């Protein structure tokens, strides 16, 4: 979570300050000058209030909501409590922050709220049912709120990355690969482990972006005088998302995903190989005019 103010340019927040070493190292000379680190748990009302109240005059120019947790696997094996935990961070956590900063932004008639969403907030992905649902909810909330906030000269921007290669993602995939998924039938578990996980790994390898790339996209959105409501950081995903809006029945996108994942896996691997080729740096050098 990033909070940008005038008197103290950037406040980077995290739930557990014991893990701040890497962030401090990355901050370098800016630490405690133009950047400070503060504790914030978006799932706790008191923590959110304490953080906002610590700001001079509670003034905040830009709020970047990037707190999030993932969940993947057969839905039968996921407890309702685990589903609630995902929504508590991904949905209600962002709303807590938005509610906390809106009064001052409205009074000043100025502000920018950035929410790190996902392409899974636009297009569902197999075995990511609950995570996608939390992002769909966030998209609907922000799309509704953005209209009325324009009357107060406050902008909302949804930044929608595709797969991002982080330690968190890799650990999550390794963990679920070892899980047994009690409650799910054997066929579904087999599809998940033998079809989805290899496909997901191939997608991350081929289309995954770095956190730094997404961060730069966020900076570009913040810098715009009239920031866009939606920004997809990975243009390779645009055609897949467009399928959903090309056919109002939904059959085109659902059928396409089903065929690629379960029926024509050879075509899926071929398409991944093609994407690897056209995104390769040596290929780009060949087709870029001198």
Automatic annotation (TrEMBL):
Q: A Pfam family in this protein? A: adh_short
Instruction: State the UniProt keywords alphabetically.
Output: Lipid metabolism, Membrane, NADP, Oxidoreductase, Sensory transduction
InterPro entries, per database record: 17beta_DH (IPR011348), NAD(P)-bd_dom_sf (IPR036291), Sc_DH/Rdtase_CS (IPR020904), SDR_fam (IPR002347)
Q: What is its main location?
A: membrane
Q: Which GO terms describe its cellular component?
A: cytosol; membrane
Entry EC number(s): 1.1.1.300
- Active site, per annotation: 131 (proton acceptor)
Q: GO molecular function: any one?
A: estradiol 17-beta-dehydrogenase [NAD(P)+] activity
Name the enzyme's class. Answer: oxidoreductase
Q: List locations, semicolon-separated.
A: Membrane
Sequence intervals crossing the membrane: none
The reactions it catalyses are: all-trans-retinol + NADP(+) = all-trans-retinal + NADPH + H(+)
Its BP terms in the Gene Ontology are:
estrogen biosynthetic process
For this chain, the family text in UniProt reads: Belongs to the short-chain dehydrogenases/reductases (SDR) family.
Q: What does this protein do?
A: Retinol dehydrogenase with a clear preference for NADP. Converts all-trans-retinal to all-trans-retinol. May play a role in the regeneration of visual pigment at high light intensity.
Give the protein name, as stated in the record: Retinol dehydrogenase
Species per Swiss-Prot/TrEMBL record: Podarcis muralis
Task: Tell me what gene encodes this.
Answer: RDH8
């Amino acid at each position: 979570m990033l909070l940008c103010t005038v008197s103290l340019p950037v406040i980077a927040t995290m739930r557990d300050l014991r893990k701040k070493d890497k962030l401090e190292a990355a901050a370098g000379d800016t630490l405690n000058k133009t950047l400070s680190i503060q504790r914030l748990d978006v799932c706790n009302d008191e923590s959110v209030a304490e953080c906002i109240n610590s700001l001079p005059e509670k003034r905040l120019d830009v709020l970047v909501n990037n707190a999030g947790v993932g969940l993947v696997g057969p839905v039968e094996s996921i407890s309702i409590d685990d589903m609630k935990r995902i929504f508590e961070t991904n949905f209600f956590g962002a709303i807590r922050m938005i509610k906390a900063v809106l009064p001052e932004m409205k009074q000043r008639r100025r502000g920018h709220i950035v929410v790190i969403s996902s392409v899974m907030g636009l297009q569902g992905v197999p075995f990511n049912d609950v995570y996608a649902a939390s992002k769909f909810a966030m998209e609907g909330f922000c799309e509704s709120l953005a209209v009325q906030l324009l009357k107060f000269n406050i902008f909302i921007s949804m930044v929608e990355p595709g797969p991002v290669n982080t330690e968190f993602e890799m650990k999550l995939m390794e963990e679920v690969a070892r899980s047994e998924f009690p409650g799910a039938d054997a066929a579904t578990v087999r599809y998940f482990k033998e079809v989805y996980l290899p496909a997901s790994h191939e997608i991350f390898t081929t289309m995954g972006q770095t956190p730094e790339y997404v961060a730069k996209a966020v900076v570009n959105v913040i810098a715009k005088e009239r920031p866009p409501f939606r920004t997809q950081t990975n243009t390779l995903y645009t055609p897949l998302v467009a399928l959903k809006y090309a056919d109002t029945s939904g059959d085109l996108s659902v059928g396409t995903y089903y065929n690629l994942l379960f029926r024509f896996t050879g075509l899926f691997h071929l398409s991944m190989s093609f994407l690897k080729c056209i995104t390769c740096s040596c290929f780009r050098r060949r087709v870029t005019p001198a």
